């Protein structure tokens, strides 16, 4: 279980507050959709939860162990257990899908791996297994720059799993994808929760959050206004976060 208590986040020297006193908890196997108008703080929330942004204040615990106390970014031990999926995943375009899965995320890969593409041989089969699970085995030796948007997202998911992520924060992962590709990506994420007990928190359009997620968070002006499980939002709830 992950507990978040009074998360605060500001920018511009703390002149502009993005997240205000966000408190919640979530467990293994949950897929949570984050909805809200543009500028409500969804991306910042996801980056904070995935330990990609420094917290100005708040407490963060994971299975009873303290990750953040009073602010900060958390230790590398916990950052390595979190993955952050961007709208357009950062892959090495001249590397194959397999190499991207194995050598890790752009900006977080050790220099020697970036230069040589070297990987540990015992990781190879695990990476191929993940690519096969998500229908990408035939793309393993295709350069990432030649993959479709949906394929790139699934490669990023495979990469997160191979590198040990138990929690995935996905920032609008299906923007720009055709309906079939979007369905493949979201079904993949939902399967990870149901079959592997992963936690996924994804910023999504309302209709997709209601279709694929077991729980919906409504964010408005940096505050967590709604936390609804097992059903669609009512018209009144949608109006409370200005989605209608």
UniProtKB/TrEMBL annotation:
One of its GO terms (molecular function) is ATP binding. Keywords: ATP-binding, Cell membrane, Membrane, Nucleotide-binding, Translocase, Transport. InterPro entries: AAA+_ATPase, ABC_transporter-like_ATP-bd, ABC_transporter-like_CS, MetN_ABC_transporter-like, P-loop_NTPase. Residues 2-243 form the ABC transporter domain. SMART domains: AAA. This is ATP-binding cassette domain-containing protein. It comes from Paenibacillus faecis. The lineage of its organism: Bacteria, Bacillati, Bacillota, Bacilli, Bacillales.
